[in-house]
Amino acid sequence: MIYLLPYKTKQFFFVLIKISIVVAAFYFIYIKLTQNTDFDYPIFFDFSTKNNLFSIKIMLFLLVLTGFNWFFEILKWQKLTASVKKISFKNALEQSLGSLTASLFTPNRIGEYGAKAIYYTKDYRKRIMLINLLSNVLQMGVTCILGVVGFSFFVSKYPISINYSKILLLSILTVFLIGFAIFILSKTKFRIKGFSFEKIKTFILNFPKKLIVYGFCFSLLRYAFFSFQFYYLLTVFGINISYLQAMMVISTMYLLASILPSIFIFDVVIKGSVAVYLFSFLGINTLTVLSIVTVMWFFNFVLPSIMGSYFVLNFNFPKD
């Protein structure tokens, strides 16, 4: 029915939708900043001021680390999409930050798939969605690999009550269920949003291996920068801790936080809860941990989403 509307009416609705996305993103940020009962912002600002967090030197260095974090994410997207269509770094920047803003309030960033796809013409969109899936899988792969290593050292050093027999049983059951699900999907014509399991498997198996290696390396570099940013904030808030000891906890935190489903805007709450529990074993107080998680969230998601709002407002559909 929308195709029957006059051109100016369609343009009006299009602008209205773009404004609504930006307003929704900012509203969720506002809600997080004002209605988090677990965090007292006046105390946070006073605590941060005492630790000189707002000095120009520290703020600029945090911005540099955030810049490298997103630089490698954008570079990864540019490289992976080259298998379908070559785009400039500027285009990759627009698509990465614009889709971040559009997906900020969607569960597990699910809105990012559609947001990136609409930057392309119809004949590219399905493949772009699969490339975005691959990009996320690569980042999750790095998080899981380093997280398992960090978790192994963590449980060997700190007295966490773990029922290993239950974990083993759960792991075996999970592997069995995944294997059974893969077998069933491969034998049926089950589809997810138009994608059959066979088509997804074929796409990933035939994807250029060189680009997958690039994607994995960029994911690893991105992880290195945002995890180091967390460690740097620990030192800013006066925590005397070695880098390796901090990374043992940080990698464990990101592993546990990543496997918990959430609305992306409340990702900071989940990371905060996990981080408070894990860093308590090192004797680090709750205020310090929550302050660091909040600063990380602000620099790596709020600031990029504000930049992304510009790209959302200036978005135009590609010409077929």
Automatic annotation (TrEMBL):
Keyword Transferase present in the record's keywords: the answer is: no
Q: What single Pfam family name could you report for this chain, choosing any that match?
A: LPG_synthase_TM
**What is the name listed in the Swiss-Prot or TrEMBL entry for this protein?**
Flippase-like domain-containing protein
UniProt source species? Mariniflexile gromovii
- Key word Cell membrane present: yes
Where does the UniProt annotation locate this protein?
A: Cell membrane
In the bilayer, the protein is annotated as:
Multi-pass membrane protein
Transmembrane regions: 12-33, 53-72, 130-155, 167-186, 207-225
Keywords annotated in UniProt: Cell membrane, Membrane, Transmembrane, Transmembrane helix
Alphabetized InterPro entries for the sequence = L-PG_synthase/AglD
